[in-house]
Amino acid sequence: MKYLDLVELTKEKPAYTKAGVKPGDFGAVMSEKAIDGKWQVVFSEFYTGKDIADIMVNEEDLKVHDDVPMDRYPKKLKQIKPSMVLCYDEPFKSMKGNIKEFLPTTYEWTKDLNWKDLIHFKWEKQNKNVSGLNENNFKYFKYDDPYVKDQLVKCSICGHIAMQDQYGNGECKNCGWKFSKDEELLEKKAGISYPMLVTPTTAREQYKKGLPFKATFDEFVNGLYFYSEMLFEYNNEVYEVFLRANKNSKSNEDCDIVFCSNGMQQEYKTRQDFESKANIGGILLKDLWGKVNNPSYMYCG
User: Fold this and answer.
1) Do 238 and 252 belong together in one domain?
2) H helices present in the chain, as ranges
3) Is residue 223 domain-shared with residue 257, that is, in the same domain?
4) Of 12, 129, 261, 285, which residue is most buried, by most CB within 10 angstroms?
């Protein structure tokens, strides 16, 4: 007999019965050697593998097997075919048979609802965790906005109290900074932030000078290579900058850059070309950046 041998209990003794094992139960030897003629054995249930007992057993009370004999497996419980299955809340699509939806906490309310109220009940159930809804429209369920900003934190820009949601996204009412939990990491990795685009480092400098938050030209181009599509306004006209794949593109860095508005379009092969040549009316974009408004990723609102 040795460690991890499959063994069967062959004798009944008070100590074994007290531990919950009986002759015919199978287990595994867990000791490296016998101690006073006894081996440590863990007995387990068939099918579930749940441990029954971990006890010391006399070697003469055990029989070693290579495998569990097929005729020793206990029969599984008889499978039944119920006439109806009560499913807590909405059933899975894969469930078959006579499935009845049952929501215990609201069953007494819904069983007598008219069809209009029942539709509203189901709408509430599907939308009780959708962000941006009015809690006054919910009478059957407690509305829980997952993005509600209810946690107090220190604003990383101005140092005042700001509010954030459970995911670390928030806004400071004092300085107007909108932030995410990974803003410092995103600045280090990509030279931008979300959702403001302007990096925290630049934002702190602008706040100290009393300036509004605005991405620098370099941050705008960083954003282009991160989001692929960017917008800004100049002289009441919207300009778009986006990446366009070519036959040699393997990543954003290999794409062409398209700079356009309703009245113009320019195309550049590299970031360096765009930064040094992109212009509006002959004036380099980087030189008139101070007059540009709302530089942002596309459709940020």
Assistant:
1) yes
2) 14-19, 107-110, 115-127, 183-190, 200-208, 217-227, 271-277
3) yes
4) 285
Last residue of a domain, which of 29, 46, 72? 72
- pLDDT tens for each residue of 156-184: 999 999 999 988 999 999 999 999 988 99
- Tell me the C-alpha distance between 31 and 136, whole Å: 65
The pTM is what? 0.58
3-state secondary structure of 58: strand
* 154 three-state secondary structure: strand
The range of the structural domain enclosing residue 274 comes to: 215-301
Among 227, 226, 241, smallest CA distance to 292 is for 241
Torsional class of 294: left (φ above 0), alpha (ψ -120 to 50), beta (otherwise) = left
| Same domain (yes/no): 209, 223 | no
Could you give the CA distance from residue 217 to residue 279 in angstroms, rounded to a whole number? 13
| pLDDT band at residue 80 under the 50/70/90 scheme | low
174, HSE (Cβ side, Cα atoms, 13 Å): 12
Q: How far apart are CA 144 and CA 299, in angstroms?
A: 27
Handedness of CA 212, 216, 220, 223 (dihedral sign): negative
**Cα torsion 103, 109, 114, 119: sign:** negative
Omega of the bond prior to 195 within 30 degrees of 0, cis?
A: yes
Q: What total number of domains does the chain contain? A: 4
User: Do 233 and 189 lie in a common domain?
Assistant: no
Which tokens in the block code for residue 79? 């499978």
Q: Are residues 229 and 260 in the same domain?
A: yes
Q: Show which of 40, 72, 104 is a domain's final residue.
A: 72
Whether the per-residue pLDDT at 301 is higher than 50: the answer is no
Q: What is the dihedral of CA 219, 225, 228, 234, to 10 degrees?
A: 30
